[in-house]
Specification:
With 305 residues, the chain is of the alpha+beta class. The chain has 3 domains: 68 residues, Uridine Diphospho-n-acetylenolpyruvylglucosamine Reductase, domain 2 (2-Layer Sandwich), CATH 3.30.43; 106 residues, Uridine Diphospho-n-acetylenolpyruvylglucosamine Reductase, domain 3 (2-Layer Sandwich), CATH 3.30.465.10; 79 residues, UDP-N-acetylenolpyruvoylglucosamine reductase, C-terminal domain (Uridine Diphospho-n-acetylenolpyruvylglucosamine Reductase, domain 1), CATH 3.90.78.10. 24% of the residues lie in helices and 25% in strands. The protein is built from 6 helices and 18 strands. Strands 6-7-13-11-12 form a 5-stranded antiparallel β-sheet, covered by helices on one side. Strands 1-2-5-3 form a 4-stranded mixed β-sheet, with no helix packed on it. A 3-stranded antiparallel β-sheet has the order 15-16-17. A hairpin with a 7-residue loop joins strand 16 and strand 17. The longest helix has 19 residues. The chain is globular, with a radius of gyration of 20 Å. The two termini are 36 Å apart. Bound molecules: flavin-adenine dinucleotide. The site of flavin-adenine dinucleotide (FAD) has 31 residues, from strand 3, helix 3, strand 9 and strand 13.
């Protein structure tokens, strides 16, 4: 008989994952846990290892497309690991903290270096994992290092090394690890200057329609070799507004695919492939999805991440 999973935080069965993603799409998780802190998380991981239950780490759910059939095993939400510790100019943020809240906190403390990421959806852990970038900044730029739980379920500090980071690439993607926290080495700044820039950034996102419909931000990576951003290529190919079931290329941005009318993951996935096919036919460029496809897909061999 299976032994019981012990956790101080919450544990639920058959959790609808659409409630945890920016697309508002995704089937159910067999099991869904929200550990309270690092000790709770570690105990949970020991239990899962012993019971041979696979797990997936969920940050803010802002860059993933979860299958309609959901995720087998345990989904671990990092939401409660949202600590904030400031020592001098070193800001240590828990992986589950919304990264935008980290930028706001830094600005309030007269610290510069994270303002570019204000109003971007997602968690600190997800931003590190994805090496999130926007408005001329990249999360790796002010990073001093990150603490992880490694493959042996031990804590490990990964100091920042420039060569480990590239466009949309972080050292965490090559490992089966969990990011616990990130340390940023920030500079002195003026809070009112920082806030006026941050408000501008948020307004620009609003004007560009980032929050107009459920989406995952940019669907495709940009590729310099293609000579133009993916959104422009899609628009120039005449695909803007293309629809498939409840999924659509937004009318306002070629690279923002949206859940317009209760789209299924399957519809969104088919639309992504259709855009890839049509752009390839018309331009010769193969767009690479930025979204990570996770869970129980019919064709798991053809994962696009
Ligand atoms: C409206 C909108 C605008 C966006 N704009 C931008 C933008 O300008 N620039 C940009 O780069 N992105 C953008 N994105 C995409 C998204 O916000 C980022 O990729 C973000 O960093 C994802 O973080 P997350 O916490 O939501 O990660 P999730 O989507 O939850 O997860 C992404 C991956 O990271 C892994 N992961 C998450 N947390 C951890 C952890 N603690 N330990 C180990 N692995 C972890 C997950 O397992 C998964 O593989 C946008 C998204 C939306 C919806």
């Amino acid at each position: 008989m299976k032994r019981k999973i012990n956790i101080r935080g919450s544990l639920r069965e058959q959790e609808p994952l659409k409630n945890h993603t920016s697309f508002r799409i995704g089937g159910k998780a067999d099991l869904f846990a929200e550990p309270l802190d690092e000790v709770d998380l570690l105990n949970l991981l020991y239990d899962l290892k012993e019971m041979e239950i696979p797990w997936f780490i969920l940050g803010g759910g802002a860059n993933i497309l979860i299958a309609d059939k959901g995720i087998r095993g345990m989904v671990i939400s990092m939401a409660r690991l949202d600590s904030v510790v400031l020592k001098g100019k070193i800001l240590k943020l828990g992986a589950g903290l919304p990264v935008s809240d980290g930028a706001a906190y830094a600005a309030d403390k007269s610290l510069k270096g994270l303002e570019f990421i204000y109003s971007m959806p997602g968690s600190v852990g997800g931003a590190l994992w994805m090496n999130a970038r926007c408005y001329g900044g990249e999360i790796a730029e002010s990073l001093k290092g990150g603490e992880i739980i490694n493959e042996k379920l031990e804590r490990e500090y990964i100091p920042f090394k420039k060569e480990d980071w590239a466009y949309k690439k972080s050292p965490f993607q090559n490992r089966n690890c969990i990011i616990l926290s990130a340390e940023f080495d920030l500079r002195e700044g003026n809070p009112s200057d920082l806030w006026s820039l941050m408000r501008e950034i948020r307004k620009d996102r609003e004007d560009k329609g980032h929050f107009r419909a459920p989406c995952g931000g940019s669907t495709f990576k940009n590729n310099r070799a293609f000579g133009a951003p993916s959104g422009q290529i899609i628009e120039e190919t005449g695909l803007k507004g293309l629809r498939l079931g409840g999924a659509a290329i937004s009318d306002w941005h070629g690279n923002i695919l949206i859940n317009e009318k209760n789209a299924t993951a399957d519809e969104l996935d088919k639309l992504i492939r259709l855009v890839q096919k049509k752009v390839l036919e018309r331009t010769g460029f193969l767009l690479e999805p930025e979204l990570i496809r996770v869970g129980d897909w019919e064709d798991n061999d053809a994962e696009s991440d």
